[in-house]
Amino acid sequence: MTKLMRQHRCALLAAAVGLMAVAAPQIATAGPKAGSTYQLRAVVPVACWVRPDTTVVAQTGQSGSVIEACNSPGGFTISAAYRPLKATETARLTYGERSLNLAKAGNMELRRSNMAAIRTIAYRFDEVQLEESLVLALTIQPI
Fold first, then answer.
1. 32 close to 100: Cβ distance less than 8 angstroms
2. Could you report the per-residue pLDDT of 64-87, keeping only the tens digit for each?
3. How confident is the model at residue 11 (pLDDT cuts 50, 70, 90)?
4. Which positions make up the signal peptide (predicted)?
């Protein structure tokens, strides 16, 4: 190694050490500062489902529960669809706190929520007078 190369190496090493000494305090203080703000934006898709514990069949004394889940901030509705009732047929359904006579048309709203929720709702059929079996299909719709 020549004397010139050795001096060149020493000069580079000294410059590197000097640069590190100057930069080290700034590196140590890097990071979030008090009063900093961040903006975070996320889009969450609306997801809703209704799940009865068993097939919902209208029979006197038949009972069960339904899990309702919907993250729509505006709430949701739970509806029942079934075959139209004949003029002589009736069925009374208690769904949660509501007691309802099933509509003859074969479709009715059972419950309306004004906020997102996950709940288990009990149901029970009373005073059922049917000529043929009646199965209810439950649906959930975000508002």
1. no
2. 999 999 999 999 999 999 999 999
3. low
4. 1-30
Give the distance from CA 24 to its chain's centroid: 47
Residue 19: per-residue pLDDT? 46
Which has the closest alpha carbon to 69: 110, 108, 116? 116
State the DSSP string of 4-49.
HHHHHHHHHHHHHHHHHHHHHHHHHH-S--TT------------EE
pTM of the model: 0.69
In this structure, which amino acid lies at residue 6? R
Strand partners, 68: 50, 119
> 10 Å Cβ neighbour count for 60?
13
Burial class (CB in 10 A: 0-12, 13-18, 19+), 130: middle
Which carries the bigger pLDDT value, residue 85 or residue 19?
85
